[in-house]
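Re: that chain you flagged

S.,

Sorry for the slow reply, it's been a week of failed gels. I finally had a moment to sit down with the sequence you sent. For the record, here it is as I used it:
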Amino acid sequence: MERRKFLLGALAGLAAPAVVGRASASDDSGSSLPIPPLVDVHESSPTLLEAINGERAFIGHQRARVLGWSQSYLGPTLRMRRGRAARMLVANRLDRAITSHWHGLHVPGWQDGGPQTLIAPGSRLDQTLEIEQPAGTYWYHSHPHGETGEQVYLGLAGMLLIEDAGSSDTELLPVEYGVDDIPLIVQDRAFTRRGELAYDDDGMALMQGFRGDKVVINGAISPKKHVPPGIVRLRLLNASNSRVYRFQFDDGYEFHKIAGDAGLLPAPVRMDVVELAPAERVEILVDFSDGRTRQLVSPDVPVSMMGGGMMGNGSMGRMMGQGASSDPDQMLLILTLEVDQAKKASKIALPTLFSQAPSPDFGEPVRRRKFQLNMMMGMGMMGAMLGGKADLGINGKTYDMGRIDETVRLGETEIWEISADMMAHPFHVHGTSFQVLSQNGRRVDYASTGLKDVVWVDGSAEILVRFNHPAGPDAPYMYHCHILEHEDAGMMGQFTVS
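Prediction finished late last night. Pasting the structure tokens below so you have them in one place:
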């Protein structure tokens, strides 16, 4: 796969900083938070989702060329319902192949949207997805091998919600979309002087993953949102290619985590910081009854290296050729939340427990598999820094679309042990949700994480996993690092379920 630098627009003066500061007065920070349109997906008539070229003014009136799903940038929020089928008609109006990966959905391999199920330019894919899994916050994005990072970066991503009308827990939560139930797609982006998007998957951008110099929420830089004076539900999706966020409020205000990647927790968990690696999701409840304006922020989290070091920090960053080191003391402005007393809050009390939250019921594991995430393959890290090609991999092998790496039995429970060399990685498994058992040998409390489909591997992690849908060799499931530049460079494997 040819490594490349991708610039949309003028090349003049581009230098994508490694440090993301607060939005400057010259950009559109402080604009209203865009809310993606909500689309209900039914079985009776197909919902059309088209990959199209678009334009977006991120900075002032300068327009950047981007991609979107049925709109100029990103896609609508798709709402599906548990126990009902959802029919999607995915069309490709671009000049490149795409896929439609339903991230977190429990569907057969041929519907999963991995690299083997390409949608060619001018083609359409008609699918009916059987939705039978817990209510939660999921997402969708394009997933072609070698181009996932670029296509997601340019905008081929969107949020996907599953609702469970039969759950009494729904009555305890804010549900007015865009008012007290707010979708937040968090990305970082880099721009040229003319406001065009810039993307680099060579050298350091490949090894640590691409990091932009602006934080963008639903397509706007550090926007504002008016909320009612009561309980507000924020659905946070880290849709960045590689950046890790530690979300918190500027005044240290506490909130309650109620859901992770794949559904509700048994009860709300009180906290003041929540960390999200790429592709992870979390739902939090925030009480705005005191009427105070608050800013959602995150430190500029450096890339974690094994042994406690940080790529891009101090001598390691200079040795690796990074232009500027990350500053963990720098707070990134994500979103300003202002209370509007004219808005009516639908909920003014926090729930105490969720009686119908999913609980782990995997049974006894019958086998253990090990996965080692490898950075030092091909020419290795230093070769990549000098402009060469670096092949990343898993278990000593870089991804090959013609090779099945693992064969899994339908309905059998397994323990997967994932370990990482050189740096930390978010590890994603297609087609199921799993329970995280341990991280670096320490047991993980299920009540604080819930079911997951991404696990942060900063050393080692164990997950308990089972697959209840088939995936054949013509359309296998994937497991991979969700730093998209790592995935594109080969840190991915594929497996069948039968």
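What I noticed first: DSSP finds seven helices and 36 strands in the chain.

Talk soon,
D.
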